Each structure stands twice: as C-alpha cells, then as structure tokens.
User: Fold this.
Amino acid sequence: MEQSAQRRVPIESQRVDAPLTSSAVLLTLTLTDPAAGSEAVRIVRGVLADLEDITKNVAFRDLDAALACTVGIGSDVWDAVTGAARPAELHPFREVVGAVHTAPSTPGDLFVHIRANRRDLCFELERQLLDRLHGAVLVTDETVGFRYFDARDLLGFVDGTANPVGDALPAATLVDASDPAADPAAHGGSYLVAQKYVHSLAAWNRMSVEQQEAVIGRTKLDNIELADASASEQKSHKTLSTITDDDGVEHDILRDNMPFGSPGHGEFGTYFIGYTARLWVIERMLERMFLGDPPGKHDRLLDASTALTGGVFFVPPAGLLAGLGD
Ligand code: HEM
Assistant:
C-alpha cells in the first residue's frame, strides 16, 4: 500500500516538510487595516486560530491528495497579528540590486502556501480561507502552480533534487528548541522567502543545451551534477546557491519551487519558495545570485528569469496560531 493511502488523518497545518505535490496555490495577502486591535486583525487572528480545522475540512475528503497548508506572517504585521515575541531574524525582504538584475521587495503581510495532489482541493481550501478573510485582506498575488513532468521547471531542468532529506530536513528548516543558542521566539518555526519569477523562454532557448547546463550546474536530460567551474570561469546557479559558513559548514534550505504560467498570455514562470531555519542563508544565496561571485558575475539564470516579487515571512508552529483565537 502506498504510504499516503495508510494515512488516517490529514497533514497538520504549518508542516513545512509536507510532501511536494502536483498542485499548489501561492497567495500573498495584505491586511486592509494592519493596526493592532483593528477589525481586520481580529478576523485574521480568528482564521489563523482555525487554520487547522479549516484545512482538515478539505483535506479529510481525500487523504491520498496530501493537502497541506502553511501560513507565513510578514514583519510589518507580526506584532499586531500574533502579539508574540518577534523571531530575531524577521524583517522585510531586503532588495538586492545587482549591476544588471534586481530582486525587488514587494508588499505582503501574509503568505499562504497550499499544496495537494489535486487542483480542486487547493482551490477549495483557498476559497474557504478567502471567504473567511473577506474584508480583512487584499490579494496582492495569486499564483496557481503545477508539477511539470518529472519535477522540471519551465526551463526544462529537474528542480528540487538537492533538497535535504531525513534528519537533515528539520535541521535545515526548523528553529531548534533543543539548541541553547537558538532564538526562543522562533522555536519550531521556519523563515519563508517567496519570489515570483517569469522566464524569457526565447532568451533561454538562444543558449545551447551545453550552455544551459553550465548555467544550472547539472545536465538537462538526466540531471547529473556537474563539477564546479574552474576559478577563472563563471559559477553555476548550483555553486552560487551553495552556502558555507566560516567554519566550513554547508547550510541547506528546503525549496518547493512551482512552475506556473499561461502559454496563451505568454507567461512562463517559476515560483521560488524557500524554507529555512536561518534567514541569512537565503539572503546570502540571493546576494551571490544577483551581485555575483566575484561581484559582477551574476547568476546567468537571471538573464532569462526576472523576479517580480520578493517577500520574507515567518511560519510559526501550529500551536502559536491555535492560540490566537478569542
Ligand atoms: C528562476 C528561479 C529558479 C529556478 C528556475 C531554479 C532552478 C534550479 C535548478 C534546476 C536547480 C538544480 C537542481 C536542484 O538541486 O534542485 C537549482 C538548485 C538550487 N537552487 Fe535554484 N532556481 C531558482 C531560484 C533560486 C533561488 C532564488 C534560490 C535561493 C535564493 C535558489 C536556490 C537553490 C539551491 C540552494 C539549489 C541547490 C544547490 C545545491 O546544493 O546543489 N534557487 N535551482
């Protein structure tokens, strides 16, 4: 029997490690009135307190579809919405302005990441959440993502291979309560960075497959990792997004990138979603991609990919949300 078929209960909300699925909805919301104690804040707190139940209502109707929902809260509304201590690294997305490409910072108070193996379950959960949030939020971005062949992005490369597995997954994504040095305000939660990229497939396809492979750092057909470029050559995306600290420790993140698009509107994109226990790790990846290493040698993935949005959120553990009700 498949593991999912053995599941007797839905996936708890706020499970960052929920399985990668074939469908997703990425919602960015702003509060209509972010002042502490406002009616909008009261509604949002009520919905977040009920998130587990609302998600269960939809998820239970097909447990094999692995419906999961995580909500991240932005820096500007953290205090008003949660009333809890602030996670130490939580701050608005820091724009990265490179010589050629920019990672912009765009508005967003809440980020809702809905995943399932059925498009209709994602739709239904989004519908129920927005129904309850009516009047309290504005939708600044709604993107529907889909799995493309064998987990490929629309550039044709398998995307997500290097994600951590096993014990390395919680270590990379969750602020660890057992670590005395870990920020107590962030225990059990995860930082989330979201960026919506659109691709110029024309620009990408002007490159040969060999050039594309050098840009990504893997072969296209069979996804084999290439050796790092020599010191005199430009680094690949894989190398620029590998982060090692001063002690030589490599820091992974969890990516749940989703392709999205509409050929009829000429839209082809990748929604980057990164979960991390240490926000600085993703920030350093972005600096290396946009500023380049050495400076000026930016990630050539960006010559065919434009970041339209950028947001930082903190995904608190489910228990914190459950406590937000009246
Ligand atoms: C246009 C958007 C993007 C696309 C199409 C893309 C695509 C890819 C692909 C195809 C790989 C190689 C396979 C894999 O290990 O998953 C990869 C690796 C990776 N990407 Fe991206 N990526 C994008 C943006 C980003 C951003 C914004 C970040 C971080 C800020 C990032 C971080 C990473 C990391 C950490 C790896 C794994 C490196 C390794 O350890 O081998 N990516 N990406």
Observations:
- The chain has a mean pLDDT of 96.
- Residues 288 and 294 are 8 Å apart (CA to CA).
- The longest helix spans residues 119-132.
- Residues 153, 155, 157-162, 195, 197, 216, 218, 237-238, 241-242, 253, 255, 270, 272, 274, 282, 285-286, 301, 305 surround protoporphyrin IX containing FE (CB under 6 Å).
